[in-house]
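Example (one chain per record):
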Amino acid sequence: MRGLVLHEPLSGVHGQVGTESRVVMQMGRQKVKRTETITHREPADLRGIPTGSVVHFDREIVAERMWSAVRDGLTETGPATTLWVSESEYRPSRAW
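Predicted structure:
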């Protein structure tokens, strides 16, 4: 991911629903710190997923003056390729 400096699990099992992580992004000269919580993952067991199936992975991201929900859908399209469809919702938490 462009600008990613750090992704560090704080609680829970990495990649599992409920896991909270600290995320640091570099945006120009500024580092932005965020807290990410995994809110949905389907299927829960990622082993043996049939080709063409969509894996859903949703998370909530909170930072100073910002809240975001990200919903991703991942589908294997070949032996080394994945289709990644992402929907993001952003809300400022106060006026800029």
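Caption: The mean pLDDT is 91.
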